[in-house]
Structures are given as C-alpha cells and as structure tokens.
Amino acid sequence: MRIYWSGERGGQSKIERELQSWVAPVRRELLLRLLMTQANRQALSVAVVLVGLILVGFWYFRAPRPVLSLYVWEGYFPADVLADFEAESGARIKLSIYGSNDEMMARVKVSWSEFDVIMPSNYVLSEMRRLYLLERLPPEEIPNQRNIDRFYYKSDLGQGDNFEYGIPYLVNYAGIGYVERLVSEPPATWKEYFGPVFRRTYGDRLAVLDEPRETLGLALIGLGYSPNTEIEAELQELREFIVQPRSPRGPSRFVLSEGRKLLAEEEIALVSTWSPEITDAKEQNADVKYVLPQDGSILTIDTLAVPRSSKPAQKALAKQFIDFVLRPEIARRVTIHSSYANSLSDDVDDMPEALKSTPSYAQPLPEKTFMLQDVNDAQHFYDSIWAAYRD
C-alpha cells in the first residue's frame, strides 16, 4: 500500500510511514497463521494415512477367528451355552440342524470338511463306522468322558465299541402321548397302538415317529420279537401286521419333533415319539398324558461325534467342544433347555426333581429295555417294509 501526500511525491510522508509500521506486523501474523494452517493440514493428513495403514495391517495380519461347525438335532443346545463356549475358546459357532438320522447321514456322506461335530443316534454308529465317516474319540483327548454313567457301556447293550466313535450324551425312551379327552382308553402295549383297532378308530389323528428303525422296532416289540431281528419269518409277520388297508378316517401321520406341537394343539389325538417331546407337549397342554407301554421300549442315545472329513485343527476344536458340554454344569443346562435326559452318572448329574418326574425320565424295566443295533443284510427287509407302510 502506498499513500502520497500533496507536495511530497519524492518521499514517504509521516502518515505513510505510520501506516506501513502498522500493516507490516499484521501481514506477518496472517502469513504465519496461513503457514501454520497448512502445516497442521499436512500433519493431520499424514496422521490419518498412518492410522489407516496400521488398521489395514492389523486386519490383514491378524489371526482369523476359527469357526466350529455344528450339525445337530433341533433344540438341543441353548444359545447361552454356545455363547459361553465361544467366549472361552475364542471360536465362532456355525449352527446347522437336521430332523432325522437319514437326513444327517445323507449330508455327511457327501460333505467334505463341512461339519465338525454331529449327533448320530446310537443305532447308526455301526454303519457310519463301516463307511469310515467317524473319527475315534479316545478318553485321554476328552477327559470329561469320565462323567458318563458306565451303564451305557454294558456289553448286553451291544454298543460299547461304537461309543469310541460317538460319545453317549442325550437319552430317551420311546413312549406314547395322548390327549385324555380325545382318547377314551389309551393303549397299554405297542401291539395295541400299531394294531388295526386303533388305526381304524383314529385314522389321521394317530401319529407315529418318522424314523424307520425306531418305529418298526417298536412294532416288533409289540409282536414279542427283538427290534433287531434278522429272521425273515419274523419280518414277514411284521409286514403283515403293520401294512394294513388305510382307515376311512385317513392314514396315520408320520412326524418328528413337530409331533409335540400337533399333540399340544390337539390336531392329533395320539403320537408315538421320543419321551422328552411328550414332556414339552404336557407343559403346553395339561390334558396331554403319557404311557410307557407294558411290553417295553427302545432306549435311544444321541451321541457326540466328529466326522473324519473335519480338518485337523477343527477336530481339536470339536473335541474341546465335546469336553465342554460333558461338564456337569453344562450338561445340566442342556437337559433343562431340551428336556432330554443326559448320560452323566447320578453322582455328578444334579437335575431338578420336577424334571425327574416327567416322561423324559420314565424308564421301562431293565429286562424290557432294548437298544437298536445294526441289522446287517436284513436292512433291505426293513427298508421294504417301511416303504410299504408309508405308502
């Protein structure tokens, strides 16, 4: 800025000099602020870039969180138990469910490294072993196996060796649930239940478990035979007994876990199913009653197993999970949630008395307790009878 005063073009006036002295410091201050602002911006930009690089590096180089894939029966494990294992192990759980052993077997046969823990019922363990589908589970790798009641390893149950590949966990005996006001006289035996009178009377309001080996085994018990018979004449008698003309009221229904809902809502009058399902139905409808037939029942055990196709690191995590759920306090929570009794011995299994008085804990006499086993080459007879029965 330059100011000229009249008569003084050749030099600076006093006013000009004063103005210059005032403007110069202001100009310097503005320049310094501008430079500082640019420096701050540059420093901030550098800091942002550095933080970004650190975060990207952390994400790229951090160890991935392992995933444990469970393929199990619906409704067995409560969410809080799975969350506790995730917190303890650092793993993330992927949960898939199935409704029958046939569904599980078909999936596991064709999968590769898809599942890490499965829950086959005891009577499919032999076949899965033959097909080399299961990993052996030595006690030293799963120390909480010591909590299991030795009853399940008795030689006369015929499952001891199989339980090296599938550890007994949740157990039940098949029974009959019925709605009292809809059934004038409940069946006392399996022979009555599967017989022509009940079939004609109740038609499609009578339901049976959609598990071939269990349902045909119960019918064989009703006829006085072993549920594992391989005798062709006995199987022919089973066919003639169970494959009957349809009732005018419709064919029997085939159900799995949905049977409890149908019974509680009185869409069906009777159902043969796993006893804990009837426990759940009774909680929803006080008119639901339970019968454990006089001719005995089949003990079914859902086991904890590891597919051979699981990757080595995943197998170690799977064994850690199995050991975790065999802890008494965890097994107790699983049983209370699912209504399925567990396999732990009485000295470590502390169940509420109210649960012990339900169908879940009802048991037949020891001499009338049966377990399903591999029927070898006779399986095709069972398959044929089941197809005709379901048709």
Topology:
Blueprint: H1 14-61, E1 67-73, H2 79-89, E2 92-98, H3 101-110, E3 117-118, H4 125-130, E4 166-179, H5 190-194, H6 196-202, E5 206-209, H7 212-222, H8 232-242, E6 253-255, H9 259-264, E7 270-274, H10 275-284, E8 288-291, E9 297-305, H11 312-325, H12 328-338, E10 341-342, H13 353-356, E11 369-370, H14 379-390
Parallel strand pairs: 1-2, 1-3, 5-6, 5-7, 9-11
Antiparallel strand pairs: 4-7, 4-8, 4-9, 4-10
Helix pairs in contact: 8-14
Summarize the structure in words.
There is one protein chain. This protein has 391 residues and is of the alpha/beta class. 42% of the residues lie in helices and 15% in strands. It has helices at 14-61, 79-89, 101-110, 125-130, 190-194, 196-202, 212-222, 232-242, 259-264, 275-284, 312-325, 328-338, 353-356, 379-390; strands at 67-73, 92-98, 117-118, 166-179, 206-209, 253-255, 270-274, 288-291, 297-305, 341-342, 369-370. Strands 4, 5, 6, 7, 8, 9, 10 and 11 form an eight-stranded mixed sheet that branches. Strands 2-1-3 form a three-stranded parallel sheet. α2 links the parallel β1 and β2. It is globular, with a radius of gyration of 36 Å. It starts with 13 loop residues before the first helix and ends with a helix. The relative contact order is 0.15. Residues 1-11 have low confidence and may be disordered.
